[in-house]
Structures are given as C-alpha cells and as structure tokens.
Design goal:
The complex is a heterodimer of chains A (about 250) and B (about 375).
Chain A: E1 5-16, E2 19-30, E3 34-39, H1 45-52, E4 60-65, E5 68-69, H2 74-79, E6 81-84, H3 96-106, H4 111-125, H5 140-151, E7 158-162, H6 170-185, E8 189-194, H7 197-202, E9 205-210, E10 213-218, H8 220-226, H9 232-240
Parallel strand pairs in A: 3-8, 3-9, 6-7, 7-8
Antiparallel strand pairs in A: 1-2, 1-4, 4-5, 9-10
Helix pairs in contact in A: 3-4, 5-6
Chain B: H1 3-16, H2 20-33, H3 35-38, E1 46-52, H4 57-68, E2 72-77, H5 81-89, E3 95-99, H6 103-110, E4 115-119, H7 124-149, H8 175-206, H9 208-213, H10 219-249, H11 257-281, H12 285-301, H13 314-319, H14 324-337, H15 346-366
Parallel strand pairs in B: 1-2, 1-3
Antiparallel strand pairs in B: 3-4
The chains are: A alpha/beta (about 250), B alpha/beta (about 375).
Amino acid sequence: MKENYVIEAAGLTKQFGTFVACDHVTFKVHEGEIFGFLGANGAGKTTAMRMLCGLSVPSAGHATVAGYDVYHQADQVKKNIGYMSQKFSLYDDLTVAENLRLFGGIYGMSRRQIKEKTAILLQELGFENERDTMVRSLPLGWKQKLAFSLAIFHEPKIVFLDEPTGGVDPITRRQFWELIYRAADRGITVFVTTHYMDEAEYCDRVSIMVDGQIRALDTPAELKRTFEAENMYEVFLSLARTAIRTDS
Amino acid sequence: MVLPFLIEKEFKQMMRNIVLPLIYVLFPLSVINVVPRIATQEIKHINFSMVDNDHSPLSQRLVHKLSASPNFHLVGTYPSYRHAMATIDNADADMIIEIEPEFEKKLITHGMAHVAVATNSVNGMKGSLSTGYVTQILADYSAQLRDEAGLDAGITRTARFNVEPRYLYNTTLDYKLYMIPALMALILILICSFLPALNIVGEKEKGTIEQINVTPISKVEFILSKLIPYIVVGLFLLTFAIFLAWLIHGYWPVGPLWLIYLFAMAFVLVMSSLGLIVSNYSSTTQQAALLIFFFMMIFMHMSGMLTPIASMPQWSQTLTLINPMRYFMEAMRAIYLKPVTFASLQWQFMCLCIMAAVLWIWAIVSYRKNS
C-alpha cells in the first residue's frame, strides 16, 4: 500500500514549567483512516491535539498536518482541518442555520454554497425542523452531532475530535459514529480522542498515551494480540496501570 | 470576504442580548438628562442666620440687601452668636452674619465698621464660594453707602474698585453646558471600550473563541469584527446624545458638527484598542471589567471633567498628557462652547492619533491565536 501520511509528528513536546504534558510524541496518520487517540485524563491527549491544530505552540519537536508545518504554516494547516473541542463551542445564541452560515463564511464558502450545503446537511441529520432553533435549546446529543457536522462543513482533509461523545447516551453515540464513518468514506481523515473502549474498536488504528508518551500504537486487533487481551478495555487497563501521573 | 459574516454575527448576538439594547437607549438618556442636573458645583441656595447687634437703619438695610439676593435665604434673626450657632449645628443654616454693636455710629464717625461672617466649611467648595458671594454683596453695599452720603466709608476693606466681569462663551455660567460635552465621552468609553472587551473575554470563557482560533481567520479580521459593530453603535449613540442635549437642554455645538465626529472617531479608536489590550491580557470577564473600571476612574478624574487640570499638582498635570480622555474632553467642550476651527484643536487631534496608533499596534501584537 502506498504510504500517504496526513499527520506526521516527530518528537512533539509541550512543557508547562517543569511539567511535561506531552513528551516526545512521534506518530504518523494515514490519509483517510480513523485514528483513535486514547489515554487517561491528564495523559496529554488534548495537549497533543491542540498542538496539531495550531492552538498551542510546541516546546520542542515538529509536526506536519496536511503537509504543512503546524508552527510555521499554521494558517495553511487551519484551512485544511476541522476541530471539535471537548467543550461545546458553537454559538448558543445563534440558530443552527446561522452557525453553519458563520463558519461556512469563515472558510470562504460563497453564500450560495452555504445555502445548498446547509439544506443537504440538515436533511442528512434529520434537523430540517431545527433550522431556526437557537443552538442553546438543542439537547446535548444533537449539539454534538451539529458540532461535528460543522467541523467538516468546509470539507477539510482532517478532522480533530476531542472526546466528541462525552456525556452522550449510547444510541446517540452510535449515530455519532455513523457520522464519523460517513465522513471517513468521503476521504476525511478522522483523529479522535475517546474514553470509551467500545469506540476504540471502531478505529482503524489506535494509540494509547500514558504520562505524556505514546506506549502503544497499532490496529485494535493487533493490540489485543500483543497484550493477550480479550478486548480494548483490558489493553487500556494494562497500560494505564503503569501511569505515574493520576487524575488528581 | 469573511468580515461581513463575522459582523453579521456580532450584530445578531448584540440584538439578542437582553441587556444591551436597553442600555443603548437608557444610558444616553440618563447621562444627558439626569447627570448634568445633579453633578453641579454651582451654589444656588445659601441659608444664613443673622445676628444684628445694632438694630439701626443702616444695619437693617444690610439685612434686607442680603435676603434680597436670589441665592441667599434668611433663616432667622438671633439675639446672639451663640443662638445663631445652634442653627448651624442643626444644619438649618450654612453661615452666620453678625453686625457689630454701634455699626451705624461707627460708620458715620469713623467711616468704618465690622461685619463678621462665619461659614460652615465642611464642604470647602461651598464654604468658600458662599463667603465670596457675601463679600461681594458687602462690597456692593459699601460702595452704595459711599455714593449716597459721600461717606468715605468701607464696611469691609475689600473691593474699593468696581469690577464688572464679562463672561465669554458660556455667558450664563451654566454648569450643565460645561458638563454635557464631557459626559458624551463616557458614553463612548462604555460602548467602545467596555463592551468589546467583555465580549471577547466572554468568548474566551464560553470556549467559542477556540472554534474561531482553529480557523484561518486573521488577527486583524477578528479584531475588526469585534470593533466595527461597537464603533457603529458608539457613533450612533453619540448622535443620539447630541440630539438629546438639544431636545432637553437646548444646547447645540457652536463649532462645526463634523469636528465632533472627527474627534469621536479618533477617541473611539484609542478607547477600543485599550479595550482589546485589556481583553488580551484577561481570561475572565471579571478581570476585564475591573481593569477597564480602573482605567475609567483614572481617566475621568485626570481628564479635567470634574476639576480643572490647571489646579492639579504639577506631577498630575504632566500625567494628564497621556490621558486620551483629556484631549477628547477639551475638544468637545471647545466645540460646544466656542466657534472653533480644526486648526485650534490640532494639538489634541494629533495626540489622540498618536495614542491610537501606539495602542493599536500593541493590541494586534498582543492578540494571540495560540498559546
């Protein structure tokens, strides 16, 4: 298979004072794959992701996203990525359609493109009746689906999802992953962090971070074989137990 | 063009806010209508108690003359200073005027007699102003007596000559007319400095700024999208305030109107960049609000809005040179009261422009899309 990487991190490090949140992380992500980024709270997942999105400046090491250097070509990177943060961050005092319009506009889509795309998207999500609903009055699961759709509204090459299904019920999570698969089918690379081990099974490849370092990286099947585990949950536990840093 | 999308969003959010549109109407109304009526340093009502130890025609005339003045109100006549003092203790009177025994006789025989004036000066400003008024009336009376009888008499030693002041520009010495142009600055500060700062820090708190920071929006576009709506509203409210000043008080700028807008633009640029700098360094709305409040207090008190700059200590006079509000206020007062031209205000305009340039560079450099 032809190796075509859309994310390449080499020795990526972020240090806050004496605390090394992300310690020489090196990995590559293939084009079009769903890449699971696992780790306990405080393992450094979000920090790594923020560096890849250009929100945080690396203390050392470098990374390229979509072929652009995250530090020196941050603006080029930003044109090619979508990002959904851990904390819901759409404007809750704008309606569903207004949020789509705003972000479509920001990414340089024309008013007509936005209008067409909005209609398609609302139909796909089954949100036709919520077009003019204030985002604040949507249920959490709907908000998350909307946030994801918005992150890929401008057809980025890569989408970064930071714990996208936190606090969401199992049925909605299921639907959410269907959306992820649909995006992956369109060729969008998905980089996702999660705490749910069943979700880890859905990924093409998974990395597990412990204390700021990547301790394992492979397909779920291969990981289970290596760690002689029944499921991803056991794989995660056997690695996470070695952690020195804890949540507290 | 990204900017129209962003500005559209700001206006939508602004109008959906419960408080903001209300503030836009109420703030200019109260600032222009109420504040000038209450924030006044004119002394118009002075209560005085009289102790007349002479009871002669000449002393009686003095009492009448004092109580005839529109600013003076006679509380009562008392037999002794001690009795009159009770009216001051009870806060019924502001001053005691005591005429010495044999006032008339001394005037006629020696050409000189004494009147004692005791003033409650807890409020120093009121005390000295009212003493000044009394002195004027006494001098006037003395001159009158000289004229009448050819008496070479002076009831007081002051004012042997006649001064007739001619007041320029604010001919009726109307304090409101002096305050209103200054108060317009407050409106601009609130709208163009406070609000954008709180807006940006609010986005930081809610986390929505993250979603903006991962997009390719440039710093300048983002900053402009935050400022343009408030600058538009600010200038609109300034117009509203100018209209209200005319409607309620009948004041219209003597100088050209376009000069007001020219200065307002420069001032708004300075204040909004300050708001941005504050928001760049604050992570909570509380911090931002306190910081801006701090600046506002200092700007207000060191701008000459309430007390003249010329009577401040030298160090503070020097400090006012870096206070943008000082220049704007000087310009506004000048435009409202005098038929000024741009040439006479170019120093103020230049200072505002320099400040705007420096603060803008700072604002753009200190805004970071990453950490």
